[in-house]
Amino acid sequence: IGPITKSEASQYQFALLVLLKEFLSLKATEIEIFDPLFSSEDIRLISQFGFTLLTQNTLGKHNASTKKTLFYMPHCAEGLYSNLLLHNWNIESLQNIVLFGNSFSS
Question: Dihedral angle at the C-alpha atoms of 101, 12, 19, 81, nearest 10 degrees?
């Protein structure tokens, strides 16, 4: 998502995340969010929305084996997608993954 309080594009991406939360009827605490570029101001904003801030950079290696998981990854590097898919490269996990991200074509 990037630095929410400093980037207009990041603000739009965060707003879309908030809308997805509403549209999918998710609890704020069900949304986990991480970006190494978050400032203390961004963290306060995320906290105000009640989202769960992840503090450890797993480089995209999140486990999706236990429940359906939407990975909202706008403008992430290909390596993050690769890490996510390789980490979950089994039928139990792959069937639980929904990716919402950018295209790699030019």
Answer: 20
